[in-house]
Amino acid sequence: MEARDKQVLRLLRLELGAEVLVEGLVLQYLYQEGILTENHVQEINAQTTGLRKTMLLLDILPSRGPKAFDTFLDSLQEFPWVREKLKKAREEAMTDLPAEQDQMISDGSMRNLGSTTSIYG
Description:
The protein is mainly α. It has helices at 3-11, 13-18, 26-32, 38-45, 50-60, 68-75, 80-120. The chain contains seven helices and no strands.
């Protein structure tokens, strides 16, 4: 999962927990698509409350590969308002990302320039 998608899940964690997303078809869809294993589904279902189930799902998702976030969005057919909120937060994270990348490139270039100077200086 991309860093921005992990950030979106972290920023909206409490709101997502309040929605009890694991009821219905969400877990089964994620299992069907290979995002969750059978053990994941059993571990999530063993939790005593909807909030704990959702929090465990949110803990597992970031480690489940590059398709996990998009597949999670697809699984939210029963929760269109949640899906839209996640998409909007992702778009906002994407618009913030270029500025951060420019800063990292700039910082990296300065470090490289410093090391080049020391080699030839």
